[in-house]
What does this fold into?
Amino acid sequence: MISIELKKRIITSIALLTCLTLMYFYFFILIIFLILISLISWIEFNGLILKIFKKRNLKEKLYKFILKSISLLYLSLFCFIIIIVRSENLESEVFIIYSLFVSINSDIGGLLFGKFFKGRKLTKISPNKTISGSIGSFIFSFALIPFFYNYFDIISILSLIIITILISLTSQLGDLFFSFLKRKANVKNTSDLLPGHGGFIDRIDGILFAVPIGFLLFRII
It folds into this structure.
């Protein structure tokens, strides 16, 4: 029997995949959703910062202002890059899509391997993260290479493997970064907007770092 929480998670996942599909095929929907997701993510991030810095002294007010400014700038650049790339050319679009899928597969691989193999904890920052889960993240990321390799005409297989490792690693570090913030703020999720998933940042924590890094790596290597 499927639990109510799992049903919520499945329904929300279907809705998110539907939105992702619409964003791919319709440019105006991409812009609208990117603005909404960035705005909500910024609000969730600010909520974490406010819970971490509860005091009202000048030093903490300065920290909050700096973090809010950096997060707003970063999310704005994130949206700008995706919108420009989406309207640029097919090759650049594939860079974004591949980075996105590597991040998603890293998340799935980490969850499945962590649940199945368990074992030693990866770090105290997030007690649910294990070494086996981290290995699973890399393995699931590598599984994408045979499906995407033909799209990268001028990139060698070795370069693609290195890029994949770095994207997956960045995604995992992004996940740990927000886990650290949530631990400091003493909350489980950034919000409860997505039933069964938490907040938007809980779903895109790794993606927020992996996609820009992946795109940059493809441009450099």
Notes: The radius of gyration is 18 Å. Helices lie at 4-25, 27-52, 58-86, 90-117, 131-142, 145-148, 157-185, 200-220. The chain has a mean pLDDT of 83.
